[in-house]
Amino acid sequence: MAKGIGKFHYYSPRPLDLTVPGIRLSERADWDWKDYWTGSMESLVSAGFATEDMFPGQPGRPSIAVSYRPLGGRTDNDAYWHLVPRYIHIHRLINGGFSVQITVSREEQRLRRDRRLSRARLDTPTTAVPVPIKPLQRAHLRLVWSAPQ
Predict the structure, then answer these.
(1) What is the mean pLDDT of residues 110-120?
(2) What is the DSSP string of the chain?
(3) Which pLDDT score, from 0 to 100, does residue 16 have?
(4) What is the mean pLDDT of residues 34-43?
(5) Distance of CA 31 to the CA centre of its chain
(6) In this structure, are strands 2-3 and 24-25 parallel, antiparallel, or unpaired?
(7) Which residue has the higher pLDDT, 140 or 53?
(8) Which residues neighbour 39 within 8 Å (Cβ) at sequence distance 6 or greater?
(9) What is the pLDDT of residues 88-110, one digit of tens each?
(10) CB 67 within 8 A of CB 88
């Protein structure tokens, strides 16, 4: 990892190798903008998600979670970075593994949003068929003007 100026560290993202054993993609339908991968640090590094020194708990990194801009600069609670393609959030899991969340490209975000919305339109019920209403049964009611005299 090449060092940048100040707090920013830059790296060139490698092409991802998704055939590495030990990594798993979470199938969450409500995440239109990111992929959520889990695995050990070694398997995630060998798959190309990040370099080893970018993970939480490494020297100079927070112990639980860390986020990076697309080229490796750390974020400091900046708004909307999570929507920028190739944004990375790495989180230490309770079982000792790690989760890596990577924001997908804008085109992929649009495709996923459109698929989710089309599924939602298919899942919504259509207009209900009206049920005929039975006329009221007036068992012992009489109108005042029709009462016997």
Answers:
(1) 83
(2) -EE-STT-EE--PPPP-TT-TT-EE---TT-SSEEEEEE-HHHHHHHTSS-GGGSTTSTTS-SSEEEE-TTSPBPSS-TTGGGSTT-EEEEE-TTS-EEEEEEPPHHHHHHHHHHHHHHHHHHS--PPPPPPPPPP--SS---GGGS--
(3) 78
(4) 89
(5) 2
(6) unpaired
(7) 53
(8) 22, 23, 24, 47, 97, 98, 100
(9) 889 999 998 999 988 888 898 88
(10) yes
Collect all residues with Cβ–Cβ distance below 8 Å to 105 and sequence separation of at least 6: 85
Residue 32 · residue 109 · CB < 8 Å: yes
Q: How far is CA 66 from CA 88, 101, 126, 140, in A?
A: 8, 11, 45, 77
Domains of the chain by residue range = 2-113
Lowest mean pLDDT of 12-21, 54-63, 97-106, name the range.
12-21
